Fold this sequence. Notes:
alpha/beta, Rossmann fold, 48% helix, single chain, binds adenosine-5'-triphosphate, 6-stranded parallel β-sheet, binds magnesium ion
Amino acid sequence: MSTVSGVNPDQLLHGLTPAQRAAVTATTSPLCILAGAGSGKTSVLTRRIAWRAATGDLDPRHVLSLTFTRKAAGELSQRLRALGLRDSVAAGTFHSVAYAQLRSRWDDRGITPPTLMDRKFAFVMRVLSAFPRTVSEIPAIDFIAEIEWAKARMIEPAQYPEAAERAGRRPPTASSIVAEVYARYESQRREQRLVDFDDLLRVCRRDLLADPEFAAAQRWRFQHLFVDEFQDVNPLQQALLEAWRGDRLDLCVVGDPNQAIYSWNGAEPDLLRRFPERFPSAQVLRLTENFRSSPQILGVSNALLSTGGSAVDRGGLLRATRPEGPVPVVVAHASDRAEAAGIARSVRDHHGPGARWSAQAVLVRTNAQIPLIEEALTAARIPFRVRGSAPLLDQPEIKAALAQLRASTGPLADALDDLAHSIDEAEVAGDRAAERQANVDALVQLGRDYLAVEAGPTVAGFLAWLASTTRADQPDRHGDAVEVCTFHAAKGLEWPVVHVAGLEVGLSPIVHARTEAAQEEELRLFYVAVTRAERELICSWAQQRRYGSREMSRDRSPYLDIVGDACAALAAGRSPEAVGQGEVLPASAPPTRRSRGGTGRSGAGRSSSGRATPARASVDTTDLDEAALALLEALRGWRLTRARAASTPAFVICNDRTLIEIASRRPTTTEQLRTVHGLGEVKVARFGAELLAIVNGVTAD
Length: 701
Ligand code: ATP
Ligand code: MG
């Protein structure tokens, strides 16, 4: 067999399952790989590039692989290098690739580049200052969220009110006013020849469509397109992807609808779901095994999917392949400070001899939770790194390195090599030495990524590219450290030990998730957090949390009911597979398998948003008599009130199957309640009294 890249193709298939192998070697294009967390999607994507290169089916210099964050792009090129491909595959974010292409176009055509808006907040504040106080006093960030959402979906200011209404947005003020702010933002931006990050995508696409020569050059350069995390692509990115693609079909996308976590920011998970409709010739492959998590962790994450209504795709349930591990735990703390200290202790407890700190991560829903965790880890003398903080470009050694780059006269590649060695010789002492080295390494790595995407690399081009790519997600320093990051920033990553913190109503689900769609996204976000764990998962919450000078008492997240019941069932000996299917009774209690009519039509319900929900086990109401139907009505009313109070979709409180079983069996004791499908110890302790009161009340009537 040909070994164009110098790699033996057979070696690339080593260790893959038949399904993964089929995905790596499939000859059909377009190709869509649809599979759950940890099933090997990213692994398959990189192997597919390497395989096609090794068999002579593509030239890696003509590959463009797109991912969601800089960090992910860096990891992708790292994995490709590990598979034997040298720095020749372009891996980047939509933004970084668009910007590199625009810069080369501007250079070639002698166009003075527009200025990249780097202070959007201040800019919006100035726009707002021309509005009456009732508007200008609304936080700028709320307008920015709406403007970014609209731009991600290619919605013009005039279309905003209708589009916002249709999408169930909750703008900070009348949508006509948001539209006006958006219009002025755009006109002032144009007057000042500024472009924001979304404009980079828009302008790149516009120029590809309007300038055939530019389009031909880019399409020649990137002939094979690969996209990871396709569930989070927004319509603007999709349009740009189409412009890159032209009329060619060499496209491979991978994604997981259950991990769609950017819809609120304009992403469109339907682009993944509808991929086969869009490309009738496309092949859709599914992977069904999980290679990341212990069966116990997978039991819990599958239980989250089993409970989900229209928020999730039950096709995502995965089989375990990893060795058994400890049952995940849920820990309650008296206060946020106690929680942070408890996490620091737990991190230390999990740090066995010879273990790396980087085997652990602390995940939180909001950036605001991070400082307390940082403080506790610092106090415990545990090294940590916060993804996205401590901007790399602000570090003194990076400033010096950039000055050195600016002064260099040779090719960028040589200058980068010089940099890679320079720090060894510099006079650095103490702990900072390794850190500085790691920072410079990160810069050099960025330089190599830039070289891979840029056709005509220059030092000036690299510096400009840096400014655009190191905005929100800086590459990390590489020293051994515990990682602290938000659920969003954790996507695609994995750690042996994961601590998920702050699981309270208001944080997870987040306080502003008011629409059903937003609440469903919160559940998926929690699912993303949980599925990062390989061996151990520790979920925690605090009964009190300080906001400014006020101590607020907190309710634990309803998601913890699902996790808690799953954990209790696992601890009681029920198998992880059964728990993953939503069987959360202890193994000793026989699960109730009461037949209630045909299941053929019973599963497909409709959510209030009108979408069909995936088929679930028996939720038929045809067996219920009138009294039972009245009871079911009452139970559903109770569930709605509970769900509203917790800002969560109703199914998280109790799914329909559970309520129907209660209505039909009318349990009158806690013991009987415990045998209802979907009610474990945790839910019975929490809701038992209320449920029994409803049953008794309705029965007594
Ligand atoms: P996510 O949805 O979270 O992005 P993913 O589907 O992209 O996950 P990967 O990150 O590619 O999954 O793989 C998860 C883990 O499983 C990685 O550690 C990967 O190396 C490992 N893995 C994938 N396939 C196999 C396999 N066939 N044998 C052993 N390990 C595997
Ligand atoms: Mg992945």
